[in-house]
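Q: Hi! First time asking for a complex rather than a single chain. Here are the components, and I think there are two in total. Is that enough to go on?
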Amino acid sequence: MEFNSSTFILEIINFLILIWILQRLFYKPILAIIAKRKAFIDQSINDTKLLQQQAEEQRSLYESRQQLWEQEKQAALTALHQQIDIERRLKMEQLKADLILERTKLNVTTQHQQREFQQQAQLQALQNGAHFASLLLKQSAGPEVEARLVALLVNNLKTLPEACNLCLQMLGNKKTLNIKVTSVYPLAPEQHAQLEQQLTELINSPITLQYQQDAALIAGIRLDIGAWVLNANLQHELIGFTEIANELE
Amino acid sequence: MDNDFFFALGPIVIGNSVLTTWGIMLVISLIAWLTTRRTQQLPKTLQTMAEVIVTAIDEAICEVAPEHGRQIMPFIASLWLFLIIANLVGLIPGLHSPTRDLSVTSALAVLVFFSVHWFGIRTLGWKRYLHHYLTPSPILLPFHIISEFTRTLALAIRLFGNMMSLEMAAMLILLVAGFLAPIPILMLHIIEALVQAYIFGMLALIYLAGAMQSQQLTTQEK
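A: Yes, that's all I need. Here is the structure of the assembled complex.
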């Protein structure tokens, strides 16, 4: 193990050559590729940061825009609510007016219906009354009723209104007056006498009485004095009912 | 091949250690060329291993000499790679570690010695570099000078002694105890080879960093 100068010198040269070879073939390429990769990673990081920054800016922009939209939306909503309130108020007022009108119409209609119903009821009651009265009078009609009606007529002739008396007296200024006396049953002589006496007192001119029978009168008497007709019979009364009913209709 | 003398070219004697060194240089160069002939951004297995080795060495150097790591990295990294392989070559039957030769370790130590001054002067300049021999006191100048030589000698002798004794011990055990007993010794050989390579490289790195005052410069800058 002695020191060899040739080996010593050659080893120095060898090692220097080895350094040169490794520097050229190993360290430089490896460090270069590591630096390149590091640069690429740094570039990627920078790009990512830039993208992140852009994304942050976009997000802030979007948030501000969203806030603006939100404010616009709130303003629009407020305006819409106000418009809705105004419309609602107008509609409510319109509805109230319509309700009042409808209520008035309903009242009028109800009153009209009530009136019609009342008239209908009256008419029905009148018709029923006329019907019952007709039936009753037809069943109860007879010579006695007719006698009383004749007596009633004679009495009424005594208490005629002044205008009627004047008209009858005017009829008496002419020639002999033919008076038609219609009854259901033949009148008794005393009834004839009462009628002639009373009529004679009313009419100054001479009169002739012509007696006849008509069952349609049911009971009672009718006097045809020219254009004048004096009724004291049940048929006339029933006809009166009928006329009232017709007027109501 | 256990004889140091192999052949001679006139006055130059080519010994076993030189031949082994050439072989090691050839292997290292071949591996380096294969690794870096097609480097890619997305590395494959071999490139990944190479990057791991280079990155680890680079970080270790930059830890000690932050300012001048890249400057001294080729020298220190080459020392480590060469010494690891040179120390482990002895495990191959028929081959001997070049580092068991005092001429080889002396050559490396002398290279470290001159590198220290070369990088120191290059970094600090003549005046500043030589001034550090007078700090903290000019009285210490002789000790500085003695230290330069003794540490170089220690580098050479330490590596040489450890590797030679290791191989010799393995040889003796092999002769005495047959083929089974040397296996733990071989494991010890591997560890020792790595440790010695690390120590030699790290000491060289510390000497270089001290000469370039890298730590001081970094502290001052901070």
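A: Chain B touches chain A through 47 residues (CB under 8 Å). Let me know if you'd like any chain examined more closely.
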